[in-house]
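step=predict obj=IS6 family transposase n=227
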Amino acid sequence: MIEFKGVHYPKSVILHAVFFYLRYAVSYRDLEEILAERGIMVDHAPLNRWVVKFAPLIAVRAQSRKRPTTNSWRMDETYIKVKGRWTYLYRAVDRDGQTLDFMLSERRDFAVARCFFKRAIGSNGVPDRVVIDKSSANLADLQAVNTILQFTGGGRTVAIRQAKYLNNILEQDHRFIKRITGPMMGFKASHSAAATIAGIETAHMIREGQIPANGASAFKVFAALTA
């Protein structure tokens, strides 16, 4: 259970504020005004603290409770502005568009790609196939993964496809994330950017039906992840 001790607002208020910020294209000041219209007076600074504190905790629980994904992956990067500079958001989905994993990084190189694939495989298992773009770093890392699998996985390897058009489903998925981050007008710090992106990805997973809902609303699914 995620603890809400030490905050001066009811848990339901905090969860509604965090969910609506992560799910819809609003700024903190927009959200402050929306809450005020409902009689809840809270400054935009606490709203930011709530998102940074609770979004990554909820994201961890979402990863552990998501529905099974397929073994055919699509992997690519998009761009998010942090501290006035463009940073790389590594993302992977399966062939059905279900989110596998994501990672924000200031660099785009072999070491980062290796870290991302290690995370994705650790939480989703070894895929049968991965589709990537023409990135040499991503290709080199997958080839390294195959070298390891040849010695530890009984000879099984991952089929690698470099075809831009096959990643169209991921490109469309990028657009949803960018639409939500647009009104945020860039992030001021790397840790808050990573925390917020984790929450946005979680809200997106709920929207796509990756978290079992049993007929519950998206907000109730989100709130249930804190229990």
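step=describe
Residues 11-67+186-224 form one domain.
step=end
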